[in-house]
Amino acid sequence: MGDYDAATYGDRIADVYDALYGELPFGGNLADTVARLLELAGGRPLLELGIGTGRVALPLLEGGAEVHGIDASEEMVARLRRKPGGDRIPVTIGDFADFALDTRFGAIYVVFNTFFALLTQDDQVSCFRAVTRHLLPDGVFVMEAFVPDVTRFVRGQNVSAVDVEPDEIALEISKHDPVLQRTDSQRVVIRDGGIRLYPVKIRYAYVSELDLMARLAGMRLRERWAEWDRTPFGEDAGKHISVWELDR
Questions:
Q1: 155-165: buried (b, 16+ CB within 10 Å) or exposed (e) per residue?
Q2: Whole domain around residue 19: which residue ranges?
Q3: Are 65 and 88 in contact (CB under 8 A)?
Q4: What CA–CA distance (Å, rounded) separates 195 from 17?
Q5: Of the residues 88, 111, 148, 197, which has the maximum number of CB atoms within 10 A of its CB?
Q6: DSSP 151
Q7: 120: which DSSP letter?
Q8: Within this chain, do residues 117 and 229 fall inside the same structural domain, yes or no?
Q9: Prediction pTM value
Q10: pLDDT of 194-203, one tens digit each?
Q11: Which letter does DSSP use for residue 88 in this model?
Q12: Which regions of the chain does DSSP assign to beta strands (E)?
């Protein structure tokens, strides 16, 4: 994909992100997400990794929480700043593979598979360690991510129709590397007058691997659900919400 860095996805998709993902079936009921994060933070500050345009952070702010954010894309953060309350959220521009902030948090969270934007196992472990350094003694790390399903790939690739309208077609085209646990994808939007490309690269991890990363960073699993309403996690779950706490 040529030059692709931590900001590429956000910079490319910022102008259409809210239209595409404002209503997010994967995320479930946003009110449940906000309620659970407020409960886990217990009135203490929260930090969102990959805060983007504020889909989760702004409702938390409206709920009375102190919210901070990290994001590599200045374009995404600019969109956040234009929204009511967006200028009240401190945001650090940078890669959340490693970070150093002055505040300590009751909850650090990453949603909508954003953790997988870290493209190596080393970076993912580094993120867990950075989270550990920034949690209050009884704070938690919360992650929402898909459960990998490699059966969606045939001969290491997948092509699917995301949307088909009279004047527009959206396709998702992916290549899969099972050794690196990587997918390189393009969302291709074809409409009269032009083609738009929205690239995304991820490195997925299985729940057992994430638990091991947590242990290496000095955390342990507290809870895991299939949805934010605490639906039990089981073998048929397509995603997980995992909550780790410091192992002290």
A1: eeeeeeeeeee
A2: 8-147+204-246
A3: no
A4: 17
A5: 111
A6: G
A7: S
A8: yes
A9: 0.96
A10: 999 999 999 9
A11: G
A12: 46-49, 67-71, 91-93, 105-110, 135-146, 157-165, 168-177, 182-191, 194-203, 219-225, 239-246
Q: Is the dihedral of CA 214, 215, 218, 223 positive or negative?
A: positive
DSSP string, 214-248: HHHTTEEEEEEESSTT-PBP-TT-SEEEEEEEE--
Q: Do both 21 and 81 map to the same domain?
A: yes
Model pLDDT, residue 193 = 86
Order across the sheet with 46-49: list the strands.
91-93, 67-71, 46-49, 105-110, 135-146, 239-246, 219-225
Tens digit of pLDDT for each residue in 90-107? 999 999 999 999 999 999
Cβ-contact 187, 200 below 8 angstroms? yes
What is d(CA 147, CA 204) in angstroms, rounded to the nearest whole number?
9
Q: Are strands 135-146 and 105-110 parallel, antiparallel or unpaired?
A: parallel
CATH code for position 158? 2.20.25.570
Residues 169 and 195 in one domain: yes
Report the number of distinct structural domains present in the chain.
Answer: 2
Nearest-angstrom CA–CA distance, 136 and 159: 44
What is the Cα–Cα distance from 67 to 80, expressed in whole angstroms? 13
**Contacts within 8 Å (CB) and 24+ apart, 57-65:** 57/89, 58/83, 58/84, 58/85, 58/86, 58/89, 59/30, 59/31, 59/34, 60/34, 61/85, 61/88, 61/89, 63/34, 63/38, 64/38, 65/37, 65/38, 65/41
Residues 47 and 164 in one domain: no
CA separation for the pair 34, 74 (Å, rounded) = 24
Whether the per-residue pLDDT at 178 is higher than 60: the answer is yes
